[in-house]
Design a protein that fits this description.
Two copies of one chain form a homodimer. The first copy, chain A, is an alpha+beta fold and 562 residues long. Among the domains of chain A are: 138 residues, Uridine Diphospho-n-acetylenolpyruvylglucosamine Reductase, domain 2 (2-Layer Sandwich), CATH 3.30.43; 122 residues, Vanillyl-alcohol Oxidase, Chain A, domain 3. Chain A is built from 21 helices and 18 strands. In chain A, a hairpin with a 2-residue loop joins β8 and β9. In chain A, α2 runs antiparallel to α5 and α11 packs across α15. The longest helix of chain A is centred in the C-terminal third of the chain and has 19 residues. Chain A is globular. The two termini of chain A are 42 Å apart. At the A-B interface, β8, β9, α10, β11 and α15 of A face β8, β9, α10, β11 and α15 of B.
């Protein structure tokens, strides 16, 4: 049993664990690339962050009765009111969160942090909160980037952050059915480790994998790198247990059901508004015999997208489909280490060969396609994909780049802190749309971002990759960056809003897998229509008439901050 | 544009079209089989049904203002108050419905039947209904067997049945994205015909296919025979348009999204409680190069189930997985025609061979497994399945039985009327559960049905097949029959309740794909827990505070009738 002192958290001011950071010194092409594209000299020393001791953290608003009943609920060792605990539980890791933490902008922090060890304790915590007319915000790994964890600055009631970090066990594996019961607070590595000991895998690997929890994935409708094979968390989740004011919601672990509108599905994406998820029954798979990710190159982004579409329409079933636009491809090449990885690309032999084939190397696009299963299955999928890639002018470049990508993918979020240290912001916005909408959506979004960069007077950068394929469409994942001025948040909002509004204008969605939170709430009615918002309000009000559960997240939209 | 006079309906008293009926005279083994197993002589003339003219149909409760505004909404030709229209729209085709129609048990029939031609007319109909404080029940093909269409006998407000039969067009196919926009009133054959002209298929083939609609499938979370490949309707549905009291719910046709609890998913299974579904965007597929269904035999039911489980765990991706228990296998053989189909099984050569292998022919189980796709894909799947089947003691018996099954599957529902004509009831209950629960569930249910047969003093029959496989479990589909006495409904309830309660007792669900209606509502809280029911009530109340939309369906449970 984990004590709350052993629940690890990310840096209070940024992504990941203390002592780990992005380092550009072994990537010689990066500094000139960044200088040329956003005008930032990354070799210059960065701007200082505030020290934790210099933050002005408000005193906790914790009535003695509430504290006493919380201590009774989880034990006195697992109730915390110190500033570090409370600051760590204030925000997720959105760019807005990082910017505010760096300057100590903390208008409202949770008053108490509690660490229940099981569902019974969660029930007792919720009872205490309801009795005290307080507010409960469930907290998993704290990796959310949509503002789903943030207390409202106007909240006058005591706020309790419920950290699920002590509920981190795989409780049971039903090997016959391929399902496992897992506590909601278990983080990615803990899940894979516990399952792996018995030869199983969940197969869910979001970029946040090392710092996010099963409960958080469910609460935000997360997707992972291999979701093409294993499904999004919505497909993986077979049953839930959720502690609510009216009792504990318990659904049955059946593969499919016709019991009216699905309450299991309503919990997916509920971001704490429908209670505390304590346990999830998930599909698990035997660790596959083979697993590999191959690299491919396409002459253009259009070719790459069309190849992914053709793969999705075919009988082939890869585990990963990913293709970067030319700008993201150039960025990937700029982050390669001196003498490893996609080194072969540098080789004049390959460049000469591609040029001879008539490729314009500046529009070339890098793709990764993954395969998992028996050797026979993997070989058949590779063969089917190879022929589709060839038909679209692409060519395979082997295992090296894919292996490197696979090892490094969880390090990507560290780059934001690296750039913030040096005076630039970088962030992501992702969406999904039908195949026929992807190119217009892409062009519209790149143009909209460009116009926003012009309005704020910066040299901006935007790049994109397709990250997941479905029968009827795909996820486009944009990353943008620029050297910010004095009011970084206002500048950021200008770009972020332009990108998100472009999604709305081109029949895409406000987010494919990062949730609504408060960051995307202003686009909710455009996305799901007014009557859709009414439906959400209805189910939230039925479960939580007193608005004690993470109020303000998803709906309603509050005036933008900044 | 279809006039309402051209919207065809099933027989007012039974399944399917006038002039088509089940006929046992070319199936010589059936009469002795039925006599031996339920003590019924099917060669004896049946019991007479009431003539339509002899039914006592109440006068319509249709205030002139309501009639006028409905006529204005859809045109006077498309508003009907005659007895035949109203009786046809009173029930679905559950066994309880058929029993009541045969004796003219019609405590409450809809007062008016309207046929809007498009969404705008649906809006006008709903406005008229709200203004008159009336009730709206959407009606698709009328094939529902869960009581989802039935007006409450206590309903004092005027009741309007909204027949979607004139909204039957495929509006658009986005060939690049593999999605089509289809009007909700389109029935299976109309959809496949319109899509087929352009080389596409929906791939959704429930047993009710010939008489059910897209809107009905969505409203009940339907499954089809090839759902292992194409997905249940919940997977196929990409976007919905639903006319509600507060406006029209419109969701976006994106492949996956993270916009809070999914309102698209809430419409799935909503059975009219959340409004009138007018249009659905669905995934469509190019008609596959090859499509075949092969027959297999297993020595025992346990072997057959275990083989299906092994297939689901493997990399193989068949389009159909189905295996019957020994009793259903015996029934299949008893319904074969004199000189066709599974004829080879009769051949003493095969029987001798199986006996020599040590098979007990009375526990033998018939299985169908389907394959669709390119020739290469189909060949690879067949090969993978063959090796799994062999490992579980099974053997292939070729194409004949599968082709016969494929041709005849939509005729099965006619058998209930055939038996009712002769004094016996037959009905189905289906569920799903985790793989590890299937055998205990099966045994428990067969025993529970047997005890119920004993209590009502009949020689009863229950048989079962696995109809759909998933990663984590499967659908078990039970059929039961017995020769009924004077109070057929009370006897039926005894058996039906025993079977459904067995599902609850063994961690299965109240229905895999037949919906809740009023028939299964009493088990809803056991299935999704009390807090789950509260969530459903919340979303229904938010959309329809006046309870004008199919009230009483799904929740709350009314006292059992009969």
């Amino acid at each position: 049993m984990t004590g709350s002192e052993n629940v690890s958290h990310m840096k209070w001011w940024g992504w990941g664990v203390e002592g780990v950071a992005f380092d550009h010194r072994d990537k010689p092409a990066l500094a000139p690339f960044v200088l040329a594209n956003v005008g930032l000299d990354i070799d210059r020393p960065g701007r200082p962050r505030k020290d934790f001791a210099d933050l002005a953290v408000q005193d906790p608003l914790a009535p003695p009765d509430l504290l006493t009943s919380l201590q009774k609920a989880v034990g006195p060792d697992h109730v915390h009111v110190d500033a570090m605990q409370r600051v760590v539980h204030t925000y997720g890791k959105s760019l807005r969160d990082l910017l505010r933490l760096r300057v100590g902008d903390l208008p409202r922090v949770p008053d108490v942090v509690v660490y229940p060890v099981d569902e019974q304790e969660v029930v007792a915590v919720l009872d205490a909160i309801l009795a005290a007319d307080a507010v409960l915000i469930p907290f998993g790994g704290g990796s959310n980037i949509a503002g789903s964890l943030e207390p409202s600055a106007q909240e006058a009631r005591p706020i309790v952050s419920l950290d699920t970090g002590r509920m981190n066990s795989v409780l049971d594996i039903d090997e016959q059915s391929g399902v496992a019961r897992i506590q909601a607070g278990a983080q990615g590595p803990a899940i894979e480790e516990q399952l792996g000991l018995r030869g199983w895998t969940l197969g869910h690997f979001p970029d946040s994998f090392t710092h996010s929890t099963l409960g958080g994935w469910v609460a935000t409708r997360s997707s992972g790198m291999q979701s093409d094979k294993y499904g999004d968390i919505a497909d993986i989740t077979r049953a839930v247990r959720v502690v609510q004011p009216g009792g504990t919601l318990v659904t049955r672990p059946v593969p499919s059901t016709s019991t009216g509108p699905s309450v299991r599905e309503m919990v997916l994406g509920s971001e704490g508004r429908l209670g505390v998820i304590t346990e999830v029954t998930v599909q698990v798979h035997r660790i596959p015999q083979e697993r590999l990710i191959l690299g491919y190159l396409f002459p253009t982004w259009e070719d790459g997208l069309e190849a992914m579409r053709a793969i999705s329409e075919s009988d082939a079933a890869p585990s990963v489909t990913r293709v970067s636009d030319a700008r993201e491809t150039a960025f990937s090449f700029a982050t390669r280490k001196q003498s490893r990885g996609v080194q072969s690309l540098k080789s004049s032999a390959l460049r000469k060969m591609l040029t001879r084939k008539g490729w314009d190397l500046s529009s070339m696009c890098l793709s990764f396609i993954g395969y998992e299963g028996s050797s026979t299955h993997v070989a058949a999928q590779r063969k089917a994909v190879r022929s589709i890639v060839k038909k679209h002018g692409g060519l395979g470049i082997g295992r090296g780049p894919g292996e490197l990508y696979d090892q490094k993918k969880f390090d990507t979020p560290y780059i934001r802190d690296f750039l913030l240290d040096r005076g630039a912001v970088a962030d992501v916005s992702e969406t999904s749309a039908a195949w026929s909408e992807l190119l217009p959506l892409y062009r519209h979004t790149v143009r909209a971002a460009g116009q926003a960069f012009d309005r704020i007077g910066v040299q901006g950068w935007i790049m994109c990759h397709l990250s997941h394929s479905y029968h009827s469409g795909a996820c486009l994942y944009f990353t943008f960056a620029f050297k910010h001025g004095a009011d970084a948040i206002a500048q950021y909002d200008e770009v972020k809003v332009a990108v998100q509004q472009s999604f709305m204008d081109r029949m895409a969605t406000l987010s494919h897998h990062h949730a609504v939170g408060i960051e995307h709430a202003r686009w909710l009615a455009q996305d799901i229509s007014g009557p859709g918002v009414v439906m959400l309000e209805g189910v939230f009000a039925a479960v939580d008439p007193g608005q004690h559960l993470n109020p303000g997240t998803i709906v309603p939209w509050r005036e933008p901050r900044g």
